[in-house]
């Protein structure tokens, strides 16, 4: 009787110490013990393999349900200005555009499109370059939806490409949203005949500066 | 007499002259003095997209720009129409054009006064130490973990009470013995407590329960990683990005809406901002061990991974993946889909991941156990009305209409079926 109780106590204490004590290390830096490791350490995919992790889809791949590829080359802003929005924009699309704009663009360009998002904060934020003011009457208000799409796809000046975060239809929806805010309309009018880029206010710049590539 | 007059006249003349000179000077200074406040507004509206006073962006850093141009007139002409200066063959202008490979847009609408105001602002701003503002607040390192855990207090109270109880029992037995002695009743010699069977049995049971508790807790914890906080290759602070700078989670983890995985963002997403943000000026960062982190050096690590040359402002070598350590790990026999929870379920990231925006180093907030999943599926309501997806649940629709139930949970539409997650 006494012996069994001793064994039970020792087993319980030792088991507890073994399982609980040295599990995750100081500051929880270790993941802890696992059983059946092959269920946790997946063999299905090797992470960060330099060959696999940096691979891009095969050239010309079109995702299911995705718009057809955009063929304007980087730097060809004249052609980009003339491309029309291939989507038929509804009010729901504009609302979705607003949501997407506030997530992906508003952080710099501001949710009011005034180029003063939380990252810039009138020059006090961490971002040193002033984001473009996209509001009505602003220097970019003459941009067509095609041009806005181009900028989101390839980036412009300090801005990077958003093609990896936003698929093509999302980018067109955002372009439509920006236009709808500038026009003050619920659904933006489809781009009229392409305005010559030089017709924009000269002081706003932008168009005169072409990247030579 | 004549001489006196002439001296007087001369004096007056001199004073008038001085006055005139003073006037002219004061007028000219009001014309010359640039207004940095006006200049700042103009600079931010027109120049700041491409220029920073201290940093090179799309265009050069403008600190000391007036000293770099030999002729102020030429600088004015450059701002009015830079192409004309390049065409004139000015060597400095051509060198700039070569370096940046880009023509600065013309600003013909600026008056000379406007340009002077801007240059005045640049001079004032340039004299200021850009790192000075980093010294403000920021000493929020030692935010002690407060409150919450009272178990230590309860433990001490229990121990004290146990000791008191023991003493009382001892006193009781002593008094009993004294009373027995007085009445002449012979009490047996007391057994010391370490030989007392009752005490031993009590001790054994207590020890067994403690040991068993830890054994069971440990066994349950096998394969669970709650609070796991690995060291990452770059000290990326979610608090700085998602908390202080208010970047939406989806900005980087764009896959959370579109796919099974939220995605570790690819490096080009980091470079969207870090192409130009190459220094850290926020509050001090510390690791869990208390080591101070140099934020700018961590950004430099990113540049090394992506192969970006911060001086030349271009990618100079092929990038390599940053080997982040995965924290939230579900075994292969569990199916979990982010987009399902974020888009259809409209769950906030914080529901499962905790207050990520307050974490410098991310740790696993939930234990990701099956019980934890199921509990949430039992209590969470689905959007049942006006949702074509659930139109086949006619019984529930009828019951909602009859007022028998007011809402439908995930469990009721099959959210706790084994095959939903294990197949």
UniProtKB/TrEMBL annotation, chain A:
Keyword annotations of the record: Heme, Iron, Metal-binding, Signal
Region (Disordered): 187-213
Ligase among keywords: no
Any one GO MF annotation of this record: electron transfer activity
Domain of life: Bacteria
Signal peptide as annotated in the record: 1-20
Protein known as: Cytochrome c
Species, as recorded: Chitinophaga agrisoli
Lineage of producing organism: Bacteria, Pseudomonadati, Bacteroidota, Chitinophagia, Chitinophagales
